[in-house]
Amino acid sequence: MSAKASGEEAVQKVSHRQWIRLVVVYLLIPLILLICGGDLGWWQAWLYFLLIFAAGIGGRMWAEQRHPGLMAERQNIKNIKNAKTWDKVLAPLMAVSIGFPMVIVAGLDHRYNWSPEFPLWLIVIGFILISLGYAFAAWALVENRFFSSVVRIQTDRGHVVCDSGPYRFVRHPGYAGNIPPLFGIVLALGSLWTLIPAAVALLITVIRTVLEDQTLQEELPGYRDYARRVRFRLIPGIY
């Protein structure tokens, strides 16, 4: 979404309970992968464990250090209730789709050998896609102190357009960063069947991007000018 504030607002510190909730989520995703895979020696699962935890928790710690109160803002129930009606459905749907269905299918695929064995070079490419995508998404979170978990114009916080960092390349880098890992997981975890939940997650991401971009153009001052400068929403030169 958009960032760089004008004015000061009261900072609500993130609580220990909120940090614990985040840690549990980022532990649960790879834990489900290992349980479904039924193989504690599955090195790809452990490497994915490290990547998603480092990006998810490390990125949020970095963002909180740079913008105190951002994590509390993202988990504020009141703000979630004030989100756009359509985003009350799409936000949780997207949050779930980019994680849990992917690891469930990949894990079961590994357990029951549904897919042929992938060569090491494809697995390496998969992990590169995951790493780059998560890093790009984390960069967007750190750069944008109005990086909300739901779509709403944050007039209470002096919401203005962010055009720095990854926002110089695409208008929705947080969403853009989640796309390469969808297909990276397919390669890294060696599961062709994971293409199905990956395609569903991609569709949800694109739909949410379109609706959010339309909202910002209609309601956030300066966003139309920004959209003329940065033409692409998710993929430079394509979309």
Protein architecture, described:
By secondary structure, the chain is an all-alpha fold. The protein has ten helices and no strands. Helix 1 runs antiparallel to helix 2, helix 2 packs parallel to helix 7 and helix 7 runs antiparallel to helix 8. The protein is globular, with a radius of gyration of 18 Å. The N terminus is likely disordered.
The low-confidence parts are: 1-10
Shape estimate: globular
Please tally the helical runs, counting DSSP H or I stretches of 4 or more residues.
10
Describe the largest sheet.
none
What is the C-alpha radius of gyration, as a whole number of Å? 18 Å
> Termini, distance in Å?
16 Å
Structural class: mainly alpha
| Run of helices and strands | HHHHHHHHHH
Quick description:
The chain is mainly alpha-helical and 239 residues long. It is 64% helix and 0% strand.
What descriptors fit this protein?
239 residues, mainly alpha, 64% helix, globular, disordered N terminus
